[in-house]
């Protein structure tokens, strides 16, 4: 802790009670939260699995766990470090039955949700939201609306109750049925003596009143339609045994709210709770945290309201204020020592964000004002005249007035830890092309001046939206400057992914000419482009599909023999793979195409950054296939393409996850400001700073939540502009040494663009920039150093090793590279599905045994009930075990129905023998599927123990095997896995292992061994040696006929 500042130390060593850490940009937030977690374990002796740490992305959770690893010298059991959604899924898998869910529920993404609604559209009885010409127009909007409901933990019954009340209130106000048509106005007779003018005024008044009543009725019917649609949607999910991502939070919250016994179990377990990025929590997530933290209230939240860029309607301030109100005696610690930027960059960003006052934590905590219950008094709620008067005031005057009114209770002004002065410039160029040229010339100028002190990795170009990156990408290519466009979407637009998807489309319809054209132009076929074009011309002239012309290739003149051979080869693939596509899952068919065509061998033949990128895209596409196969009973090519079409129609371009090696190659980074959150660069360019681009125009939700149902309290003013301002603040604070703000007057179109209002708020004046024509030809600082393949592969080495990984490397280093570094997809195997099914069955079986054999049992509500008599049938019957097996059954990867039935019967036989072998009293495992991490010579080993039983003198470690027992001569290798578990039991679980057992379910015969200290030390030495070899390996293949013949990668090796 010697390198930490006093505020960081104070935050890390806070002993008990609620703690609010306000962590500004670059103040070491991640260091503090990971060091606190490690301090609680090592200094306060809190069990690792008694601490819950929640964050928002898998990457952040992984980074947190990795950092904690390095701080803990000894092993430990699995940390509960995860995203909110992963945590809730884990809870629900264990307790789904307690709230009427199925434990093996399927998790649906937005595409799955849209398909579910489309396929059941008639059940929704839509009228307002089902236009005749486009009945599915509002499906995506309704799904987003349901998601918003779940952000606020609004259940369908609550929405229905609100809708019904709205209808009843309307009936009471009007006291009579009102026509739904605005054109059906009663004529009425004017009283005698009424002038024509008066009569006309009264008629208009009556018309206006009837119009208003009709509008109110239409609105009431609209709300009722949405409420009923929400209810129907939720019922469909439950009927299908599915949840969406919003359900993970709301159902976990419902579980805790309605099952006190389960809530108390987790309250007792989690002695401390830590929440990262607290400013991004929604209402439901915060409720979940609150209910778990009480009554101990050992809750630490870390956040910065000024960096809330994902939260809807500025609820970050409301949540942080609510935190202090909900948890009395909260200790506040503000981290202000910045280890990233220069002081002038920090001052600029601080002055800029003052424009969000008074809706900032700095002001709110000082003024004591509550935003709860306030209505907006900003421009949105004012009349046109007032808005014009506000617009007439200078932005600087408004900002000054806000600052004068602010009474600050805490100071968030960041203090730089460097004495250097940063560079801040604003450029306004005539055209977009000149703006881009100025950016590129500045990059080359800095690179030339700094020489070897910096790399292209030190530069970032930040855009407001992905679409704005295209022009910069094209220019960087022309300038021969290495770049990397980091986007979280666009998988389906990647060339190799398009190749695979178009081939699958071709299998579904040979006459899909655009798809066939793409395949014919693949380099692996090597067909000259003029000959492909000749085929296209013939197809058009004869009004035939390209496939029909291709089939006649031998009868056509003017084509080279090589072209004829390539087309006939393609025709052979189509015939073979079409047969597969009728019965096999989409992933198996896609993999066969990659193997048979040689495309997989081609893309894996080199391990430079470009080829590794292609491998990554293939991996991610096959993960999409895998997820599809899990969710669908008939995961065929046809059904997948149908889902893909729905997804693309809904705007889904495929999510992209960046692999570890992608962080390495030297390249200018291009990304959105959102994507830059948490990153830092020496030189930052925030580009396209013009009106309507940054800040963007507010895009309201297509279907908004009624204000009466919104639990979040709205801040004052224009919340959209405030959110954009926070996003801009995040962009500025990414810069370490220089930040360049750029804009142009001409982006195409008839009118010149106005500079962004943020430029005026910054108080910057445009600097004249003179372009150096011709500089864009190529970089002048010599060739760029490209990392070699081994460097890139070593960046892909996992932070943890497992027994499976180590064995794979020992068998063949190249096999290890393909399987664990490149993660090349392989055909699914029946043994994998079957083994996972059996393990899940026994896990759920013993969970039920433990639950039912509790000495002092309670019902779900915590009430004492009589102890269950211990007999086999009373604990868990054979019939129940079969039901558990059926529920756990994985249907994938069997060659055919016959093989599936064979394995299913085999599983029943395994379980029957196992069940009959259990003697009373039944074992009550003290742990099941217990995760652990241990350290061997500085390297981390991760694993999971199937079962731990308490026996005389210590514990018995049990591992299930669905395979046959290996020969006696392989006994030592067989024991290595159990030796790792024994080490874990001592180091991580602090238990004494005395017996190590394999249960081979094929015979139900247990093979038990005493703990042999010498053998364990030998295993430890062998593991160290293997890891050392991995770290320095060139991953060359091991020449072995036996290994190669059974290797999944033999076709590409």
TrEMBL record:
Annotated segments matching region Disordered: 176-201
Enzyme class: isomerase
Keyword set, alphabetical order: ATP-binding, DNA damage, DNA repair, DNA-binding, Exonuclease, Helicase, Hydrolase, Isomerase, Nuclease, Nucleotide-binding
Entry's Gene Ontology molecular function annotations: 3'-5' DNA helicase activity; ATP binding; DNA binding; exonuclease activity
Residues that coordinate or bind ATP: 23-30
Annotated CDD domains: DEXQc_UvrD (cd17932)
Catalytic reaction equation(s): ATP + H2O = ADP + phosphate + H(+); Couples ATP hydrolysis with the unwinding of duplex DNA by translocating in the 3'-5' direction
Record-annotated UvrD-like helicase C-terminal domain positions: 393-678
Protein name: DNA 3'-5' helicase
Residues in UvrD-like helicase ATP-binding domain copies: 2-342
Similarity comment: Belongs to the helicase family. UvrD subfamily.
A biological process from GO: recombinational repair
InterPro entries, A to Z: DExx_box_DNA_helicase_dom_sf (IPR013986), DNA_helicase_UvrD-like_C (IPR014017), DNA_helicase_UvrD/REP (IPR000212), P-loop_NTPase (IPR027417), PDDEXK-like_dom_sf (IPR011604), PDDEXK_AddAB-type (IPR038726), Restrct_endonuc-II-like (IPR011335), UvrD-like_ATP-bd (IPR014016)
Keyword presence, DNA repair: yes
EC numbers for this chain: 5.6.2.4
Source organism: Candidatus Kerfeldbacteria bacterium CG08_land_8_20_14_0_20_43_14
Domain of life from the UniProt record: Bacteria
